[in-house]
Specification:
about 120 residues, 7-stranded mixed beta sheet, mainly beta
Length: about 120
């Protein structure tokens, strides 16, 4: 069973930065073989894809965060990151990391999910 644990959320003012981390464990195959992604969900809204990083390092971002957020992974540490800069109030949401060996898109169809970390951006 794969376990994902997010951290790094918090409250910041608009224009500020946060760095989220997602520590992975319990992989039956090696971590680099998984596509990893960040999703977010605001109250009353559907879960939306924020960014993904594929097994080969390819990255993809939602239009709303492109140029402000950066996804990265450290395969030696089994850890996924999301650097968030120039934060806006509309970025306020619960942020989740997700993993899958075969699915790799910004649609919420991943097999493994973390519990989430809250990000709140005030104006």
């Amino acid at each position: 069973q794969v376990q994902l644990v997010e951290s790094g959320g918090g409250s910041v003012q608009a224009g500020g930065s946060l760095r989220l981390s997602c520590a992975a464990s319990g992989y039956t195959v090696s971590y680099p073989q998984y596509c990893m992604a960040w999703f977010r969900q605001a109250p009353g809204k559907e879960r939306e894809g924020v960014a993904l990083i594929a097994q080969n390092g390819y990255t993809e971002y939602a239009v709303s965060v492109s140029g402000r957020f950066t996804i990265s992974r450290d395969n030696a540490k089994n850890t996924l990151y999301l650097q968030m800069n120039s934060l806006k109030p509309e970025d306020t949401a619960m942020y989740y990391c997700a993993a899958d060996r075969t699915k790799c898109s910004l649609l919420p169809r991943y097999n493994y999910w973390g519990q989430g970390t809250q990000v709140t951006v005030s104006s």
